[in-house]
Amino acid sequence: MPQRFGADWNPFSTSFISGEWWYDRSENTFGYTLSENDREWGDTTWEFPDPEEYAVLAAEHQPGWTANAGEKAMHAALVSGDPWAIDLAAGRHPAYRATADTLAGLLSLNTQRSYAGELLDRAIEADYEPKDDSFVRTYLPGAGIVVPIAPGVVVALPLMRTAVALAAAELHQAAQEYTRAIDILESVERTTHVTLSLADLLCAAGRYAEAIEMTDGVANTDDVTALTMAYRAMAQRELGDVAAAAQTLEDVFGRDSRSDEVVGFARVVESSLAGTST
Fold first, then answer.
1. Which of 199, 245, 247, 266 is the right S-S partner for 231, CB 3.0 to 4.6 Å?
2. Mean pLDDT (10-residue bins), the chain, 278 residues
């Protein structure tokens, strides 16, 4: 991590700091420093019960007398809140395999990330859509998850395939498994949040031309799209098109309602343009 010199870059320093974002000119690296109070899968105000509430939510809905043995076993395991119990229930009742992989994976995000990644990957590969699952609709109505997409941007989504894919991609990105994370996101609908996550991943993987192509037409309408454009500028800069990068950043700064984290990242990208030839 570079030495901190304050809020502004100067030509005699190798570092630029804006908020929690930093850029190290000598290494051409960007980073974000989490404060002691930050959690990677942190809290936010939203309308969906998150994985920590799944067991309580499921307990409010009891299986009917016509429910089959698999449904009853899965319900009991979910109410226990134990990911291993959910996994085991699906082992005995294979029809619930994708359901179990998704729920056990989400319940393991903060405790066993490698295990969570394996389960969520399997659910994605099975082309499973939780929002169409009768078990999820019956026992987890309104459930969802908050996923950190990039520093300063989190998305709260109902329990659906896109949310599962974003969570799985973040796990792989944290492990620097960029290709796997990109492949996962390319298998789901290209929402603005998916586009942002892909832009981040493609830049991290050094696939700058793909990042530029993928972000063609993105406009600065909110924090998510503004941050996407900042990653586009980073990619343009890495390929030597400094003029295009500067224009992209000018569009980002054209709105004054963006979050400090988004503006901070755009500022460190802007600082990286200084002294770069076109």
1. 199
2. 34 43 53 47 55 94 95 98 96 97 95 92 96 96 87 82 94 92 95 94 96 95 92 94 94 82 86 66
Residue found by looking up tokens 């630029």 in the block: 16
Distance of CA 69 to the CA centre of its chain: 36
Residue with tokens 């832009």: 199
Cβ atoms of residues 108 and 119 within 8 Å:
yes
End-to-end CA distance of the chain: 28
